[in-house]
């Protein structure tokens, strides 16, 4: 994290206090994922309602994601990787169906509103917030503000709705650690040493290498790869993380997400907010239907299948998988496959498509002006 000026440091301390207060309150009222939802809600309300001068450095969010990446890497054992490879065809099918639903939603929305189809499509595809915003920045014809708002609204709604779906009678998720193969709740800070003195710097190095290579979600993917390789190639102990450290990582991520929604930057606010909410609800409903199919095809638990298909951030879905003892390797496998597929395949296809559409539009403009 860069050195902060005195005023920025005060804003950060204020933000940290707001986030901790949110986490404590949501813990007290027994809300699911309290240290993710609490800071997110309080930072959102603090910045948009109370108008507090809040700020949260992106680097803190990144290291929160790194902690989650380490934890996911522990679940990627040889057996788990074989299971993921076995399900690759289904991962491709489910990803294509989810992207198809996003495309259909964007097309219908473009016919019912004044917004253009390319902007709506990029705003709807769940390929990672930073990746989709970066794609929008590269294409001059795309409405960047609309894309950002649609992506952030989807992410926030999923982070809110999925925990309550997990604990609904249909899913029946429960808290507890007795069935967790990594024993996360039983782990203590003392158990991390001395191995963490080696693994910590290796995970940081892995994250920075992944970032230099322009990997999607580099601060998660880098540590995941590092810990997976260590487990597969050595006999060294890989200590699980204590629950308190995972709570800290949730606060680091949730605080950042809460500050991302800025409705004051929108034009046609009512129409945009309505569109963002309705498209997010439709996407969540579609994911719920696909998770039902996945659950029966592979005999997965309802929680595992829902978190595998939920179009949210990989870090948030993995945190929820920890909380309800879902199969973390399966959840991270499906989420990672979708992110990589969208990043490497879909993004390239969208660039080609939008470039072609832009050229055709320019040709029509020239033809109209010369005739």
TrEMBL record:
The chain crosses the membrane at residues 12-35, 88-109, 148-172, 192-210, 217-235, 241-261, 273-298, 336-354. InterPro entries: AbrB_dup (IPR017516), AbrB_fam (IPR007820). The keyword Membrane applies. It comes from the Bacteria. Keywords: Membrane, Transmembrane, Transmembrane helix. GO terms for cellular component: membrane. One of its GO terms (biological process) is regulation of gene expression. The keyword Acyltransferase does not apply. This is AbrB family transcriptional regulator. It comes from Paenibacillus xylanilyticus.
């Amino acid at each position: 994290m860069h050195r902060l000026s005195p005023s920025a440091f005060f804003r950060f301390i204020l933000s940290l206090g707001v986030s901790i207060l949110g986490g404590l309150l949501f813990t007290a009222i027994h809300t699911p994922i309290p240290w993710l939802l609490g800071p997110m809600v309080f930072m959102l309300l603090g910045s948009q309602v109370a108008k507090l001068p809040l700020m949260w450095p992106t680097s803190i969010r990144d290291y929160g994601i790194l902690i989650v990446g380490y934890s996911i890497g522990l679940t990627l054992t040889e057996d788990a990787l074989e299971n993921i490879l076995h399900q690759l065809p289904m991962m491709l099918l489910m990803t294509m169906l989810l992207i198809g639903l996003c495309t259909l939603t964007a097309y219908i929305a473009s016919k019912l509103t004044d917004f253009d189809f390319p902007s709506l499509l990029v705003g709807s595809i769940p390929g990672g917030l930073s990746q989709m915003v970066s794609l929008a920045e590269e294409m001059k014809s795309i409405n960047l503000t609309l894309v950002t708002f649609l992506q952030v609204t989807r992410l926030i709604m999923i982070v809110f709705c999925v925990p309550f779906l997990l604990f609904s009678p249909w899913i029946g998720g429960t808290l507890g650690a007795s069935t967790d193969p990594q024993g996360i709740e039983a782990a203590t800070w003392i158990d991390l040493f001395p191995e963490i003195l080696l693994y910590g710097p290796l995970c940081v190095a892995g994250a920075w290498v992944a970032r230099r290579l322009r990997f999607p979600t580099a601060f998660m993917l880098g540590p995941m790869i590092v810990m997976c390789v260590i487990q597969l190639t050595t006999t060294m102990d890989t200590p699980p993380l204590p629950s308190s450290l995972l709570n800290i990582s949730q606060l680091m991520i949730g605080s950042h997400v809460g500050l991302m929604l800025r409705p004051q930057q929108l034009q046609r606010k009512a129409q945009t907010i309505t569109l963002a909410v309705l498209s997010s609800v439709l996407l969540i409903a579609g994911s719920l239907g696909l998770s039902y199919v996945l659950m029966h095809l592979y005999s997965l638990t309802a929680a595992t299948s829902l978190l595998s298909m939920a179009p949210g951030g990989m870090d948030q879905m993995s945190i929820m998988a920890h909380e309800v003892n879902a199969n973390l390797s399966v959840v991270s496998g499906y989420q990672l496959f979708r992110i990589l597929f969208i990043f490497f395949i879909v993004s390239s296809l969208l660039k080609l498509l939008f470039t072609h559409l832009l050229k055709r539009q320019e040709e029509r403009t020239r033809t109209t002006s010369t005739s």
